Amino acid sequence: MSRNAYRDGVDLPVGPAGLYDPRFEADACGVGFVADMHGRKSNQILQQALQVLTNLDHRGAAGSEPNTGDGAGVLLQMPHKFLQEAARKARFTLPSPGEYGCGIIFLPRNPTVRRKIEQAFERIIQSEGQHFLGWRTVPTNNASLGETAKSCEPFMRQIFIGRGDDVTDEVTFERKLYLIRKRSYSEIRTSTMAGAEQWYVTSLSSRTLVYKGMLLTDQLARYFPDLSDPAMETAIALVHSRFSTNTFPSWDRAHPYRYIAHNGEINTLRGNINWMHAREALFDTYSGRHQKILPVIEPGAATRPVSTTWWRC
After folding, report:
1. Minimal CB count within 10 Å: which of 57, 188, 219, 296?
2. Can you say whether the dihedral through the CA atoms of 256, 262, 263, 266 is positive or negative?
3. How far, in Å, CA of 222 to CA of 300, rounded?
4. Does residue 77 lie within any of the structural domains?
5. Can you give the CATH number for the domain in which 240 is found?
6. Could you tell me if 270 and 23 are in contact, meaning their C-beta atoms sit under 8 angstroms apart?
7. Taking the alpha carbons of 132, 40, 239, 297 in that order, is the dihedral positive or negative?
8. Is 313 a catalytic residue?
């Protein structure tokens, strides 16, 4: 299938039709990775990764508008120096590295609706024994985006969560953050709350942070001014340029995901999804609270059928 099928508005079938089956579509994304072999954090690593991403433009795709992309993003280590100053400007204080988690959240643009969802998330954090530290609005600049990307652009906020008093190590804290994120899916995203369908957690960790969106490769750094700050330091950076085939382009479908980014076809995708569903019955972790993290694979997250209406988001 040619990427021009998206640009030219070819009428692609939504589901299986004749010899066509969307399960057999192949991806052709671009992925890049830059790292300091000695683990030394610097802004240079991030800037090199953003250059790699720009060079991967030929591996991504655009929609019916040349300035609306399928998706681009970067995963980096927690930039404590930058976040410490950002938190100070937002009028709260961060503890030492590893003592707090952070993530970017996609939210509704309506401030009243957004605040109710934020409060629901804060309650989940506190019910899990962790400390809510504060919110920060993520600066964005959508001047280079096409109207399609703008029409479904989310409001972006950073959440900061302090390690609970009963959490003694980083691994346990990461598990707590994972549990909080999974609970937010079942208690917010799938709820009847206004704006719930726009809730999405790009990442939630004490180790890594993800910036991504429905962007072209050269739009990422322009869209997120944070990425141009010299205090943004990391020893690793994973970048991704998306070319969607069997999934709708959208802000949340951009890569990197919270742990991975893939380039090319995953032949065993359907099999892996089914095996994970089967293994859920055998889960025995989180002190018997594993039901709160189900489903591990969110329904509809792995595959979404292609349609000529994808640009409506």
Report:
1. 296
2. negative
3. 30
4. yes
5. 3.60.20.10
6. yes
7. negative
8. no
Structural domain of 225: 28-312
Model pLDDT for residues 120-169, shown as the tens digit of each residue: 999 999 999 999 999 999 999 999 998 988 999 999 999 999 999 999 99
Catalytic residue among 29, 102, 152, 313: 29
43-72 pLDDT, tens digit per residue, is 999 999 999 888 877 666 666 677 877 788
At 157 the pLDDT is 98
Q: How many domains does the chain have?
A: 1
Cis omega (within 30 of 0) on the bond before 22? no
Pairing type for strands 30-35 and 100-107 reads: unpaired
Rounded CA-CA distance 96/81 in Å is 10
How many Cβ atoms from other residues are within 10 Å of residue 61's Cβ?
A: 24
- Helix axis angle, 111-127 relative to 170-184, nearest 10°? 140
Domain assignment present for residue 19? The answer is no
Q: First CA to last CA across the chain, in angstroms?
A: 21
Residue 124, in any domain of the structure: yes
Residue 2's identity, in one-letter code, is: S
